[in-house]
């Protein structure tokens, strides 16, 4: 994987990413709305190692990619893509940006880069994002790019000790084509 944006490169995670990866994956504010909890250094190392065996395109498998800042060459976050188990023309995505790099429009740049990759290079039909109903920043990001809300799941997930609600947002390739033109 190698997706280039103006300021960032979306690429495979590497062993050398460990300390940057751990710095934000161990922060409770970063993991607050994520489907994972804070990681120990050992868990972060195992995660990167386990992910190194995965490649884009396997149905039903999440693959995590590093987000590297082109200028500093530092890992500033990660993103994930999963093709649907039953139809690989449908993808689900997720993005995590380090607490040290938030509010710089990196998530939007990454999201647009991933959408170009999925819709224009891989001809994916539909991209889905599931977001915690309390994660206003992510909801606003999705709306700003043109995702539409399709569902609101009320207390559908027991999450970090309590019931949580989620929204499902999606975009079709034809909607992407209309936005980018």
Q: Could you describe the 3D structure shown?
A:
The chain is of the alpha+beta class. It has one domain: Aminopeptidase (3-Layer(aba) Sandwich). It is built from six helices and eight strands, in the order E-E-H-H-H-E-E-E-H-E-H-E-E-H. The protein has helices spanning 18-25, 28-31, 41-51, 106-121, 136-145, 173-180; strands spanning 2-4, 8-12, 62-69, 75-83, 90-97, 126-132, 148-159, 162-172. Strands 1-2-3-4-5-6-8-7 form an eight-stranded mixed beta sheet, with helices on both faces. Helix 1 crosses helix 3 (41-51). The longest helix is centred in the middle third of the chain and has 16 residues, at 106-121. It is globular, with a radius of gyration of 16 Å. The two termini are 26 Å apart.
Short description:
This protein is α+β, with helices and mostly antiparallel strands and 181 residues long. The protein is 31% helix and 35% strand.
Which properties best describe this structure?
181 residues; alpha+beta; Aminopeptidase; 6 helices; 35% strand
């Amino acid at each position: 994987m190698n997706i280039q944006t103006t300021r960032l490169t979306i690429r495979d995670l590497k062993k050398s990413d460990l300390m940057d990866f751990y710095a934000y994956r161990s922060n409770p504010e970063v993991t607050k709305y994520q489907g994972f909890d804070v990681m120990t250094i050992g868990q972060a190392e195992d995660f990167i190692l386990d992910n190194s065996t995965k490649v884009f395109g396997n149905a039903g498998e999440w693959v995590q990619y590093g987000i590297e800042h082109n200028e500093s060459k530092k890992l500033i976050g990660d993103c994930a893509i999963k093709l649907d188990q039953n139809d690989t023309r449908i993808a689900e995505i997720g993005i995590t940006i380090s607490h040290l790099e938030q509010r710089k429009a990196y998530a939007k740049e990454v999201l647009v880069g991933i959408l170009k990759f999925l819709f224009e290079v891989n001809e994916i039909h539909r991209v889905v994002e599931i977001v915690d109903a309390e994660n206003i920043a992510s909801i606003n990001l999705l709306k700003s790019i043109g995702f539409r809300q399709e569902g609101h799941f009320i207390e559908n997930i027991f999450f970090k000790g309590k019931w949580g609600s989620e929204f499902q947002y999606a975009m079709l390739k034809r909607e992407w084509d209309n936005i980018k033109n």
